[in-house]
Amino acid sequence: xxxxxxxxxxxxxxxxxxxxxxxxxxxxxxxxxxxxxxxxxxxxxxxxxxxxxxxxxxxxxxxxxxxxxxxxxxxxxxxxxxxxxxxxxxxxxxxxxxxxxxxxxxxxxxxxxxxxxxxxxxxxxxxxxxxxxxxxxxxxxxxxxxxxxxxxxxxxxxxxxxxxxxxxxxxxxxxxxxxxxxxxxxxxxxxxxxxxxxxxxxxxxxxxxxxxxxxxxxxxxxxxxxxxxxxxxxxxxxxxxxxxxxxxxxxxxxxxxxxxxxxxxxxxxxxxxxxxxxxxxxxxxxxxxxxxxxxxxxxxxxxxxxxxxxxxxxxxxxxxxxxxxxxxxxxxxxxxxxxxxxxxxxxxxxxxxxxxxxxxxxxxxxxxxxxxxxxxxxxxxxxxxxxxxxxxxxxxxxxxxxxxxxxxxxxxxxxxxxxxxxxxxxxxxxxxxxxx
Length: 436
Hints:
Blueprint: E1 16-23, H1 50-62, E2 70-78, H2 93-103, E3 128-135, E4 140-147, E5 150-153, E6 157-158, H3 162-167, H4 173-184, H5 189-206, E7 213-219, E8 230-236, E9 246-254, E10 262-271, E11 284-296, E12 299-310, E13 317-318, E14 330-335, E15 367-371, E16 377-384, E17 387-390, E18 402-408, E19 417-422, E20 429-434
Parallel strand pairs: 11-20
Antiparallel strand pairs: 1-10, 2-3, 2-7, 3-4, 4-5, 4-6, 7-8, 8-9, 9-10, 11-12, 12-13, 12-18, 14-19, 15-16, 15-18, 16-17, 19-20
């Protein structure tokens, strides 16, 4: 996957339409946007800057065998709302999630919801940073993170592994690293953020009807909008609660000096969830395969692997790479044979567990658990003080994941039905399965 390859329009993927591209001064794009009524005068930090996070990570990385390790990619995410940037970030979406979620047991750009950001977009700080390294000696990729100050260097993966290949990390990381060190250093993230905010960022955010995520993107792995390698400050809403259908985005390019002057920007619109070339929402059917019912002690679990199908005639078929679909858009219901809704309970499995066997039944009703393709816990759905909801609002829901309904063993689930509906009109989604 080449970092310089132009973004590709995919009918069931991320569809990009350029609204305005401004260079060296921003004439044109700025005229489309108003001023921010509450632009902060002072930057408020929340989390480390790029250099602070990198300094903390370097010590852990240097202790990992297989090096020397060379930095080639950086993601820093600052989002005041729950955010999962990988909901739309990858070309080989299904395969990237399936392999990378399995390879990295912890919060990464592929796993979980990014911690909330309580600073300002012009601060250059973020509560979450991910650094990707490679080693020519061992032909491996090493991912390290700073998550709310907690440093973790994950075990390296082979450059030939599915995660490295499908995510693009394995595509000539030495070239990405060369361009990174040739042009992206020094990356003064506070200077980057301040310049991006003053030049165009605050005007872009002022026009939005919702709060976006901010990302510091440095390197050459093709991600999201697919813009070329470099140092960028990105603003986007896809991957945040309720973001479906047509969503806006902005990539702001900065130079490599400590002043981090803005050299241009890319203002675009994308189909966050499956849309046609006219940005019309494509209906999806969630179908289920490999359904099983098991009983362990006082708990009965009905598990079913999910697959998306394009429900628009005459294009019925698998909905591959259905990027942008997250838990925030999906509601679940369980009914008995006569169609009466069965009582839902609070989740008995709202935190990560090593195995679904650890998810015990709640005697007052059912709840559900979302599992990744390799069976790892991703989140749960149950009754909350605000009604039925997912505990992680923006976890990805993709092909070959599993929804497991957990009920007391005293229930006979035969003849019951799991129903799936969408919470937003921008994602026409239906699906059901009859337990047998």
